[in-house]
From TrEMBL:
Belongs to the methyltransferase superfamily. L-isoaspartyl/D-aspartyl protein methyltransferase family. Keywords: Cytoplasm, Methyltransferase, S-adenosyl-L-methionine, Transferase. It comes from Streptomyces sannanensis. Pfam families: PCMT. It is an enzyme of class 2 (transferase). It is found in: Cytoplasm. GO terms for molecular function: methyltransferase activity. This is Protein-L-isoaspartate O-methyltransferase. GO terms for biological process: methylation. PROSITE patterns: PCMT (PS01279). Its main location: cytoplasm. Its EC number is 2.1.1.77.
Amino acid sequence: MPEHAPPRTRTGQAAEARTRMVTRLEAEGDLRPGLVRDALLALPRERLMPQAYVRRSQPEETPPRWDLLNWAVTADQDELLDVLYGGESVLIQHDGEPILGRVPGPRSGGSITSMSSTIGMTAGLLQELDLRPGRRVLDIGTGAGVTTAIACWICGDAGVVTLDRDRHVTAAARERLAGLGFRPSTVSGDGEAGWADLAPYDRIFVSYTVPRLPEAWLAQLAPGGRALVNVSTRSPSWPGLAVVTRTPGGWIEGELRAVEYGHRPAHGFERNFISARFRDRIAAGEEGRTFRSRHAPPPDDARGMWLALDHLHPGLVRNWAADHLTLGAPACGSWLTARPDPVGDWTLAAYGPRDIWDEIQDTAARWRAAGEPDTYQLRLEPGGEQWVSAGSGQAELSWCLPPASTSKNRTKDPS
């Protein structure tokens, strides 16, 4: 079924849904008064995403099943409004398909290959980007065009470039942005190369996670410019946010913040995961040894410590669904669980060649000596090395981000 403009009878309901979304974002602390808030109230998400997928299968069910909802189908409209304005990621492409002209209905197997990120995270990042009229913006990872639309609404579309590796994503965004009256430069290409033709940029926004910062992004940042990029290991559990600026004198400065949420990984940057079988092995605990400790694990909100652990002892994945600390190392099958006991100590169980508890305690001690940082200095050396550090002297806590040639290797779950 072809796409159409929203029926007039639904326009008011969509506007009410936008208002509720903005009110919720304000209440949750993700949005404050300003231009980003005004843009979110003004921009109809159902025009940018007139079709979206909803998953109908359970997380471990195979093959996975989705339904493609369509705003032009009356029976789909209520559910689609909930999807578009509910705050979660919006799934927009299945298995690299063309996006324009799709027939709605069920899909089976394959995977979702493009999405619009959670609006709370997007709003927070865009506010930090400090968009203003006339600023030149490079939006890498177009997706549904939400970030691009906000940048166009605030800055004017003449200075906005949006880049995606998938030409189908680019084509859909170009058409739908034009339907809203925006005509930014909408291009396809390798995101890591940026888009040198219209550089330099005052602001660079990247909507996926990378293991290190590509040199091209740094080179395309204008004096006084700022870039926001999620930087992470192959673990999805403890993301970092790189905030990079170029001083008026041309020097690159940066910091890496430990944050709660991050974007999905870049194409080809495979993530570790704990499979259902591995989770079952950990829950059974039959292989592990049990011991006690008077030392508590660092709390979840000590994000700077967990970020350091992830980089200094890579390969760990947190099972956030467990009601106690549960970590697994898919590459070697090691795992650790920790539960508080009635007398104030901790009961731990561990298995495998890695001593995960010792890794945690060692990193926590180094993190405390460095001043318990949640934000680290990010040093971008002329030779290409990228160092993360906090503290000084013997108390310095530091690590080097992986070279570009090794940053996309895949680690499989052996379980």
